[in-house]
């Protein structure tokens, strides 16, 4: 039996959890066997413990994490978020780089997979890393 999933509400809840840097709030929206991958050479992580570690690392790597939404588009059991990841290093000015998320949802309305694609040139520049 398929239930109706309100993707718009779920996507906004998910974004709020991320911009609040609340790992527990993010995890509660994920299925137990959910997968996450940042497409910058990192491997896929699977399951709550690995997700917790990966999400916490994001907030350490990008202090004062934020998201400026460019577009939010919906499909069948997924959404695509076109956004700019913003952060502010200690004592520094806000920086950012372009990202694209593809987020899939299971039959229960939980995130089953999140793929984040990064503009590598912008990310290196924002982090002060030479090519």
Keywords:
alpha+beta, Nuclear Transport Factor 2, Chain: A
- The side-by-side strand order for the widest beta sheet comes to 2-1-6-5-4-3
Query: Roughly what fraction of the amino acids lie in strands?
Result: 35-45%
The assigned structural class equals alpha+beta
User: Which fold name corresponds to the CATH topology?
Assistant: Nuclear Transport Factor 2, Chain: A
- SSE arrangement, N to C: HHEEHEEEEH
Radius of gyration: 15 Å
What separation lies between the terminal Cα atoms? Answer: 51 Å
Indicate the percent of residues in helices: 25-40%
Question: What can be said about the biggest beta sheet?
Answer: 6 strands, mixed
CATH architecture classification name: Roll
Q: Give the tally of β-strands.
A: 6
Q: What's the tally of helices?
A: 4
- Count of all domains: 1
Could you list the spans in which at least 5 consecutive residues all have pLDDT below 50?
A: none
| Whole-number mean pLDDT | 94
The first-level CATH class name: Alpha Beta
From the spread of the alpha carbons, the general shape counts as: globular
Layout of helices and strands, plus pairs?
Layout: H1 7-19, H2 23-27, E1 30-39, E2 45-46, H3 48-61, E3 66-75, E4 78-87, E5 95-105, E6 111-118, H4 120-127
Parallel strand pairs: 1-6
Antiparallel strand pairs: 1-2, 3-4, 4-5, 5-6
Describe the structure concisely for a colleague:
The protein is α+β, with helices and mostly antiparallel strands and 131 residues long. It is built from four helices and six strands. Strands 2-1-6-5-4-3 form a six-stranded mixed beta sheet.
């Amino acid at each position: 039996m398929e239930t109706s999933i309100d993707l718009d509400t779920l996507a906004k809840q998910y974004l709020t959890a991320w911009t609040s840097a609340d790992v527990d709030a993010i995890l509660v929206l994920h299925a137990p066997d959910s997968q996450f991958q940042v497409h910058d050479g990192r491997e896929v992580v699977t399951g709550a413990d690995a997700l917790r570690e990966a999400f916490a690392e994001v907030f350490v790597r990008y202090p004062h994490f934020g998201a400026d939404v460019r577009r939010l588009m919906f499909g069948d059991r997924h959404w695509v978020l076109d956004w700019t990841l913003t952060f502010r290093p200690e004592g520094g000015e806000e920086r950012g780089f372009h990202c694209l998320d593809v987020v899939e949802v299971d039959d229960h309305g939980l995130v089953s997979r999140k793929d984040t694609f990064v503009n590598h040139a912008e990310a290196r520049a924002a982090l002060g890393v030479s090519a």
